[in-house]
Amino acid sequence: MTDLVRLVAFQGVPGAYSDLACRAFFPGVATLPCATFEDALAAVRDGEADRAMIPIENSLAGRVADVHHLMPKSGLHIVGEHFQRVNHQLLAPKGARLGTIKRVRSHVQALGQCRGFLRANGLEAVVDIDTAGSAKFVAQQGDITEAAIASALCADLYGLAIVQPDIEDAKHNTTRMLILSRVADVPDAAEGPCITTFVFRVRSVPAALYKALGGFATNGINLTKLESYMVGGNFVAAQFYADAEGHVDERSMRLALEELRFFSREVKVLGVYPANPFRQTGMADLGE
């Protein structure tokens, strides 16, 4: 996959955790910061970038807002997944120490994930738009009373010192990222475990969801994720997002999807891609 990738789009500014994920999954490949998720997806759709790295869920904060709505309409295909460990660093201008710092800036989720550390050290939390943007602001101000919570990459990019490393309260903080492309890159079913991601809407009849998902149970398909969300402001019909272990070329998956389509108004496969090894090696650390 990486031999054809020259530029990867992400939402945020340089040094964001999504930027870190791009560099981890595509080492040596240039990254393209985008203001919004829509911009990152559009960069791939319009040929400006080869891939987009988009967060889908976090082990502490849950699903990432808006992404479920955007992906089905993007015209892109999911071609991979990456699990990015989130290590929060306390960053400040060189010369600052923990004793000189009074205020700490970051995204609201990052501040919440470091609440214990901030409280224990009597530091004022200041909510900012994002983690990397906070680091950039602190670097520009050069005030040793101001600090930011961000990635180690931000320390390198903006010339900041890591005053205190790994200050997150929960040591299993991990974000699952999806890699999207203009062209589907479906692996051979014999190459190893795969994930099939799809969205669907069931008919508005009793037990429709139960019947729609019955085919996965009878065919031995494990659903690792199932979430509902509203579409079009309608409180009646929900759309569902699902991840299933398996490949669309396998008979069991074909039969399960056929049954799903019979009981659903719409089914759309968003991607078939290799299951990341983290599912086997790292899930235990998340309490699986």
From TrEMBL:
Its EC number is 4.2.1.51. Keywords: Amino-acid biosynthesis, Aromatic amino acid biosynthesis, Lyase, Phenylalanine biosynthesis. Residues 197-274 form the ACT domain. It comes from the Bacteria. Residues 7-182 form the Prephenate dehydratase domain. It catalyses: prephenate + H(+) = 3-phenylpyruvate + CO2 + H2O. This is prephenate dehydratase. It is an enzyme of class 4 (lyase). One of its GO terms (biological process) is L-phenylalanine biosynthetic process. The record marks T175 as: Essential for prephenate dehydratase activity. The keyword Amino-acid biosynthesis applies.
